[in-house]
Design a protein that fits this description.
about 425 residues; mainly alpha; about 85% helix
Amino acid sequence: MATIKLGLKENWRQFTLLVIINAFVGGMVGMERSILPRIADAEFHIAAKTAILSFIIVFGIVKAITNYFTGTLANKIGRKNLLVMGWITGIPVPFILMYATDWNWIVAANVLLGINQGLTWSSTVIMKIDLVGEKQRGLAMGLNEFAGYIAVAVVAFLTGWVAGQYGLRPYPFYIGVIISVLGFFSSWLLVKDTKHHLAQEVISSNIPRLTNVFWETTWKNKNLGAVTQAGLINNLNDGMVWGIFPILLAEKNFSIEEIGVITAVYPAVWGIGQIITGKMADKICKRDMLFLGMILQAIALFLFVMATSFTQYVLLAFLLGWGTAMVYPTFLASIAENTHPNDRAKSLGVFRLWRDLGYAIGAIITGIIADAMGMNASIVFIGGLTFVSSLIIYYRMKCNDDDLLKIKEWLNNRLFARHY
């Protein structure tokens, strides 16, 4: 067997393949991101916001539970096997969305989509962390999340454009058929498992094992718990944006093409920004990255209720996307940094369980408040929760010694360069 080396450069072929596959994963969500709430309103005549958001609630719960079991089973079944299983589950989704005659079929499609996303996205995250080792986790996660969320943005824009030209169904979902087939065959035929890379890292790791992975990741460990609650709140506000914003913008008489642009800017900035912020997470204190990112999200949400023009909404979508870009790769890099390699997959599964439950919780809270008090009230409330989450990060999470050494080294290099 060839010598196993850790690092992005050393494993660039498999890493690049996994980045491309994660773009396919993100595209599956982007397929319905800008048009499904409009289908609920226009074709199924569903007026209640809680009913419209039911597909996000189901998606979030199923994806969250799948994330947990992916983390638990990754070492037993193998990362690649879980990845392939995820794509098999995703192939029927676009066909159901195309031909559904009842809203319950749309909800059922999102059960399958939740399983697809939980198995595939979690597998690619774990495999990339296995490949790169400890030095480039932030960059690795930045590239992973960049690929996934830029695909969300691109496909959200494309489906919005196709829907504007040819109608809400079936044509926009042809994109999903192509994505799911490419994702399945590339995962089945080209991906290699990373269990040997994991074994190599175990040899050199000096991080202590967690006594109870679930509870320490959930809250008891200060660093892990701070990250987990922020992940939940981040996806809580993303669930609100996903479900409410297309409806809000439609009520303000924006065209479906304009809605597609606004809803695409947010994940586009989120996705592209992570190339920069992922690398930043390897250089500076992760607590500060997370705190500033959550603060920016809260500010953007508060200002959304005051916006009136297309330009204002685009700028605020940019701000919200940048705040999310600061936190998303940092979440995953922080979990990996604070766990032993043998605990990592399960800890990531626990984190992603709570993080993606945020979709369901956000959709439920948003729908209840929007039906009772209006959509602006729900946006302000979610913005307030995001602000509180940033304070929990600031006061509970600590910079690791490695982070402080990196900051000191960075400052010394800048001062030395300036002096000479």
